[in-house]
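Bench notes, bay 3.
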Amino acid sequence: MKKSLFVILLFFKLFNSLYAQSSTDSIERFIRNAGTDTTRIRLYKELGDFYVKVEPQQALRFSKEGIALSRSKAELQLLPDLYFNLGYAFNSLGDNDSAIIYLRKSLDIAEGRKNVPMQIKSLNLAGSIFTTRAVYKEAAEALFKALGLAEASGDASQAAVVNSSLSVLFYNQRNFEKAISYGEKGLQILKVRGDAKSLGTSYLNVGLIYADKGDDRKAKEYYENALDLFKKIDAKLHIATTYGNLSLLGSIDINEKIAYLLAAQKIWDEVAPDHPNAVGNTGNLGTAYFTATTDSNFSKLKAGDGIVKDKDFLLKKSEELLTIACEKCRQLEFDRDLHYFTGELAKVEEAKGNYKLANQYLNEYITLNDSIYSQENKNKIAAVEGEREVAIRDKQIELNKISISAQRKIRFALIGGIILLAIIGTLLFRQSRLRRKTNYTLLKLNSELDEANKVKARFFGIISHDLRSPVANLVTFLNLRQEDPGLFSKEQADRHQAVITASASSLLETMEAMLQWSKSQMDNFKPRMRTVVVREVFGHIRNNFPDMHHLKISFQDPDDVSFVTDEDYLRTILHNLTANASKALQQSPGGIIEWRAARKGNEVILSISDNGPGADEEQIDALYNKEAAVNSKNGLGLHLIRDLAKAIGCVIEFSSEKGKGTTFKLVLNG
C-alpha cells in the first residue's frame, strides 16, 4: 500500500510542477474513488506527510479532510498523525499559535492510544516553537518530557533530535555549557545511528555554539568535521553554509576569511543565488573586502585568486558586492539583512569620498532601524496578535464541532463494547478461579495417593524382608528331618527345635508389631515421634537374633541412651542391619556383631560392627542411590533402610575393609 501510494504521490508531485490545479483535481478524483473511508483517511495522512515540508498549504488541506472523515475506532488511530501535520504546516506558515493548538491535540490523542513515537514528535516540535517564541519554561517542560519518553522507549533517533532541540533552547538563553552538553549528546547518538547529512548538520550547530562562546579552535574543529561529511555526500548547500560559518571566526586572518567567502560564493552562484544564505554571503564578502583596507589587515593581505592588493580595488569590490546584496534584500524583503548591509555600504562610500551617497545609505539605515524596532511596529504586531487570537478561537470552535460529530457516532458503540468486555472479563475470572481450585484439589489428592503407594510398597518390603529368613530356616529344618530323620541326635534335634520355637515366637511377635505399625502408618503417613529407650530396642533385636555356635551378638549402652524418634522405623532399620551382618558372617566361624550406643553433644550415634569379609561401595549402592535395582531375593534390603532413615532424619555412615569387617553408623538428633 505504501509503495504504490508513494509512486502515485511522486507522479502527482512531478505533474504538479507543470499543472498545479490539474494535479490537485487529479488527487481529489483519486481519493474519491479510493473505496472505504479508512483508505481515504490513510491517503490524506500520507499526502499530508508528503506535502508538509514542501507545500504547507496543501498539507493543511489534506490533513483537515482526513480529520473530518475520522469516525470509527480503526480510523482514529491516524488522528495523531493528521493533527501533527496540521501543527507542522501552521508552524511552517508562521502561525505558531495554531500550530501549538493542533500539536496539543495530537499529543492528547497519542497519549490516550499509547503512541509513544507521536508523543515525542509532538512534544519536540512544540518545544522548538516555544523556544522560538522565547517561552522558555514551556519549552523546557515539553522537551524534557519528550527526552524522557525517547530514552525510556529506547528510540535513539528521536533522542538525538530532542537533544538537538534542547541544545538550541539553552543556546538561545546564552547558556553555552548546557547547549554544548545536549548538542554533544545528540551528536554522539547520530555518530552511531545518523546519516551523514544529519551528523554534519549536528556538527555545524554545535560548532556555531562554540563560536558564539568564543572558542574558535573548537568551533573550527566542528565546522571542519561537518565539511568533511558534506563533501562526501556532495551536499553543496551545506558545504557553502559551512564555508560561510568558517569565515566568521575571529581567529582567522583576512586572507582565510576572503578565501572561505569566495569558495562559498562560487557554490551559491551555481546552485541557489537567491537563497537567503547566498545573499548574506555576498554582503559578508563585500564587508570582508572593506575590512581588508584597514592598515592592520592590508599589511597581511596577499594578492591572488582575483584579489589585487590595492585599496581602491578593494573598495570598488566592496561597493559592488554590498550593492548587489542590498538590491537582493530589497527584492526578497529581507529587512534585517538590508538594515545591516546599508550601514556597511555607507561606511564604504564615506571611505571613497562619496559623502552624498554615503549620507543616502545612512538615512536608509536609520529608516530601516526605526521601522524594525519602532513602537509603531510593536503596536502592529500586538494588533495582529489580537486578530490571531480571534482566528484561533474560531478555528477551535470549528474543530470542536468536528470532534463532537465524530464522538457522538462512536460513543454508544464504545459504551456497548466496554459493557461486553466487562461481562467477558468477569466470566473468565470466575472460570479461572474455579479451575485453579479444582487443580489444587486434584494435586493434593494425587500427592496423597502417591505417598500411600510408597507406604504400601514399604510395608510389603518390610514383610518380605523380615519374614523370609525365619521361615526359610524353619522350612530347611523340616526338609532335613523329612529327608534324613536320623541326621540329628535326639539332643541336637531338641536343641534345634527349641531354637526354632523361640524364633517362631519372636517371628509372631514381630508380625504382630509390624501389622500394628502398618495400620498406624496407613492412618498417618508421617513418623510418630516419641521417646525411645535404646536398651529396649536392643532387647528386641536380641530376641530376634539369639547367639548361635558360629555367631555372637553383643550390645553396649553404657550411657543408657534415650531420644525422640519413631520406634517402629528405628527397630526396622536395626533389624535389617543386624540381618545383613548375620548373613555376611554365615560362612565365618567365630563371627562377632557388636551394637554400640553413645551420645555426642546433641547427637545420638548407634553403630553396628562385624568382623566379616567386608563390603565395597558397589554392594551398598542401594543405601545411597535411589535408582539402584531392588534385590528380589532379600526384599528391599538397603533400599528399605535408606527410605526409613530419611523419614526420621537419620544419617547413615559406612566404612568397610576387606577381610576385617564392616561398620555402619546411624547419626540421629538427640
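Next record in the batch:
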Amino acid sequence: MKRLAVYLKPFIPRMSLGLSIKVIGTIVELIIPWILSYIIDDLIPLGQIRPVVIWGLLMILCAMIGWAGNITANRMASSVARDCTRQIRHDLFAKISYLSERQVDLLSIPSLISRMTSDTYVLHQTVGMIQRIGVRAPILLIGGIIVTLTLDPVLTLIMIATLPILGSLTLYVSRKGIRLFKIVQRGSDALLRVVRENAVGVRVIKALSKSDYERRRFKKVNDEQTQRERHAETTMALINPIMTMVLNAGVVAVILAGGYRVHNGTTEIGKIIAFMNLFTIVMNAMMAITRIFNMFSRAAASSARVLEVLDTPVELFEEAPKFSFLPENASHITFDNVTFRYERGTFAVKDLNFALKRGETLGIIGATGAGKSTVIRALMRYYDISEGSIQIDGVDIRDYATVDLRRKFGVVFQNDTLFKDTIRENIRLGRNLSDEELLEAARRAQALEFIEEQGGLDAPVAIKGANLSGGQKQRLLIARALAGDPEILVLDDSSSALDYKTDARLREEIRKHYADATKIIVAQRVSSIMHAEKILVMENGRVIGMGTHEELMASCPLYREIGDSQIGDRRADETGKEAVQK
C-alpha cells in the first residue's frame, strides 16, 4: 500500500480540502449532543422558551453544516478515488503492454485481466472509503471520548474500557483476512480463466455438444471460489457481532452506572441522554473503523497483485539502439546456432542455422509442434533465445531498440486477431496510412473485392471478425501486414483458408510488389513455399532438411512425402473437376 500511495500525491491539495471539510462537518456533529445536554439540564429548568428555541435552531444549523460538509467531502473523495484508480489502470495497462511473452505466460492472461479489473476496483473502493470514513471515524471516536469526559469522566472510563478488547479483535481478524483474501483473488483468476476459455471456445463446445460438461466444470470452479469467499467473509464477519456484543455490554454498564449516579445526585439526566447519544456515535465510529480494516485487508491483497505487475522489470524494451553503424555485406537475416526453450518446457528449437539475403524468401514447413512459429517469435524477439544469436543486417536483434526492430516487420500470425472496429482501422492499426495505401494493400492481398461488397473501408468488423469468413479474415490480416510496406514480411500459416487460385494470385502480387522485402512463410502447403529460395523442413524443433523444392524432393523423405501427398491430391482434384465439366 505504501508503494501505491505515490499515486495519491498529485491529489494531495484536493484531498486536503476535502478532508478539512470533513473534519469541520464531523466536529460540528459532535457539538449537537453537548447542546442537547445544555438545553435539558440548564435551559428547560428556567422555564423560558426563547433560549430553548435559539439553542434548538443552533442544533439544526449544526446538523445542516454537518450534512452539507459530509456530502461535499464525499463527492470530492469519490473524484479522487476515480482519478487515482484511472492512473493506476493506465500504468498497469502500459506495463502489461511491454511485458515479454515469457512474463505474460508466467502471470497468465486471466490473472492480468483480474488485476486490471477486480483488483483495481478494490483499490478504488479503499481509496474512497479511507477519505470518507478514515478521517470521520477517528474524529468521532476521539472527539466523542473528549466530549464525554467533559460530561462525566466516570462513565467515560467505562466506555474506554471496551476499546482495547475491540482493537485487539480487529487487528487479529484483519491480519488473518489479508491471507484469506489473497487466496480468494487467486481463485478469481482460475474462475476467470474458465469463463474466458468458454467464451473463446463457445463454437467448439456447442459443435461437440459439451455444454453440460463445461457447465459442470464451471460449477466446480465456482463452488470452490464460493467456498473460499465464504471462509474469508465468515472470518471477517466475526468482527461485527462480537464488537456489537461488547459495545452493547458497555451501553448496559453505562446505563446502570448512570442510573446509580443520577439517583445519588452526582450527575444529571441531560448528561446521561447526551452521553448515550455520544456513546452511539463512538460505537458507530468503531464499527466504521472495523469496515475500514476489513476493506484494507482486501486492498492489501489486491495491491500486492497490482504491484507484482508494476514492479516486474521490462525484459525486452530498449528505447535506444546499442550500435552506431550497420556492418557491410552482411546477410539480411542470420540464425547462428539458435536454441530456445520455453519456461519449464522442452527445447522448442535447437541448433538452428540459416542466412537470408535481402529480398529472398524462406519457407518453413513441418508437422504441428515442430517449432515453426517459435522461429518467428524468436526473430521478432517476443522471447529471448537461450543460446546463439539472431542478427538482422549483421546486428544482434538484442542491440536494436524494440520499437525499431518491430517496425521492420509486417506479420500475420497463426490465429491472429481482428478488432471490433471498421475495416479501415483494422488494416491501418494506428499507423499514418492514407485510404489509397490501405486500398492498394487490400487489392494486393486479394481482399478488395469483398471489402467493396461489405460497403468499403467504413464497413464494420465484429469482435475477432465474427462477421467474416475464414478466407476473408486471412486476406484482411494479410492486407494489414502489407500496408506498412515492411522490410521483412512474415506470413505464419496465413493462407490456409484460401483456395489455390487465390493463394497463387496472392503469391504473385507479393513477388511483384515486395521484391525487396525478405519473406518468411510458414505453411502447411507445399504449393505456398515451393518457389522459395530456401525451405526449412522442421521436426521436433530441429531442421531435418534445407534447400530448394527440387533439392528437398530428392533428399528429404518427409518433404517428399508431404509434397507427393498434396501435389498428387491437387492434381486428382483438378482432373476430377475437368471430367465433371466435360
